[in-house]
Please model this.
Amino acid sequence: MSLGKRSDRYVLGLFAHGDPADRYIDQGDDEAIFRYVIDELDEVFDGAASTHHIQHVVQNWTAEPFIRGSYSTRRASAKKMSAPLGDRVFFAGEAMNPTGRTIAVHGTSETAYLAVEAMLS
Ligand SMILES: Cc1cc2nc3c(=O)[nH]c(=O)nc-3n(C[C@H](O)[C@H](O)[C@H](O)COP(=O)(O)OP(=O)(O)OC[C@H]3O[C@@H](n4cnc5c(N)ncnc54)[C@H](O)[C@@H]3O)c2cc1C
Model:
């Protein structure tokens, strides 16, 4: 989370998604997730993490009611989900890219073109 950010502060970021994120999410609320992470760091750095910790932010995307996760992936059944309903309702969005180019804004934008093409044909 600190990659490319200009700061003279010492910022440590942890970004987990997919199956590896489960061990953090399974801890419960944000405070429990933080405790789990700082305990792991204390184990690695011999207690120095909690000694020098100043503040933290936890963003658990799975807890956001209209989002419930971070990235979609090729493994998602995008082709099935993006199929139009009765040639009247068309879908676009990151998780709806039938070419498998999911995860980022590029793939998201492409789905708009694909949906319009499908409408016109
Ligand atoms: C932590 C993180 C970092 C990322 N970093 C990058 C990056 O660096 N570069 C990049 O290209 N991409 C990045 N992405 C991916 C990028 O954010 C997504 O690809 C993109 O936002 C998907 O756009 P979308 O319009 O499909 O969905 P979203 O942006 O998720 O928009 C869907 C919207 O629908 C709303 N919604 C859902 N259900 C309902 C409902 N029932 N009623 C009303 N509204 C509803 C949601 O609240 C949301 O606002 C990142 C994603 C995450 C989570």
About this structure: The chain has two domains: 1-70, 78-120. The chain has a mean pLDDT of 90.
